[in-house]
Amino acid sequence: MKIPATLVLLLPAFFAGDCMALDYEKDIVPLLKEHCYECHSNEKGKTKGNLVLDDIEEMKKYQITPHSLIQPENPEESQFLVLMKLPPNDSDAMPPDGARMPMENLKIIEQWIAEGATIDGLTRDAAGEDKAMSSTGSGGNDAAEKAAGTDGSKTGAVFLFWTNTEGRKIEAKFGGLGDGKVTLLMRDGKSYPYPLANLDEESQAQARALAGGATGSDQEKGSN
Hints:
It is a single chain. The longest helix is centred in the middle third of the chain and has 13 residues, at 103-115. The protein folds into two domains: 5-13 and 136-222, SH3 type barrels (Roll), CATH 2.30.30.700; 22-115, no CATH class. Helix content is 33%, strand content 12%. A hairpin with a 5-residue loop joins strand 3 (160-163) and strand 4. Strands 3-4-5-6 form a four-stranded antiparallel beta sheet. Strands 1-2 form a two-stranded antiparallel ribbon. It is of the alpha+beta class. It contains eight helices and six strands. The chain is elongated and about 60 Å long.
């Protein structure tokens, strides 16, 4: 199946939902800058309530935990989101002045929290335990183990995370490698050939390992 080049470029956005792991710096910070940075950022010189949205280490250690403002996998109890959803006339509504966060942006933040509030590569479950949202290791070693079945899985039998060169992630099964494209099998049953060259090095190595070793020409074809 051949898909238009424009669709290939839009695949990360197209896969939004269950299979997209949203990231704090890439997906959430841009939404917060306009509505929250004025009172809660080092950039603006104000840190009301000791909430510093552009201090990644501070957010990761103290603000994104099962008992903090942002509770991984629990958007309903995350005061960070709850306060932004309050009616404008509520004295606790955030931001207290200026334009409110658009509903579509709040839904993105809600999805990010529900997924585990990924920040700086760390994703947690509701109990605060780390959970993997991307492949680990270097040089494709983990992918090679999966391909060989040494981790208890079979090639193409499990959903894996794939990262493109822009740092976006999708979750899909491996469906094959050929003509410079890796076929990704989605949870909805659909499959998409994705250019190998558009994946980061680790995901490319994962694809080659799962394919049992592809020739170097695959990457060249994928870049054409």
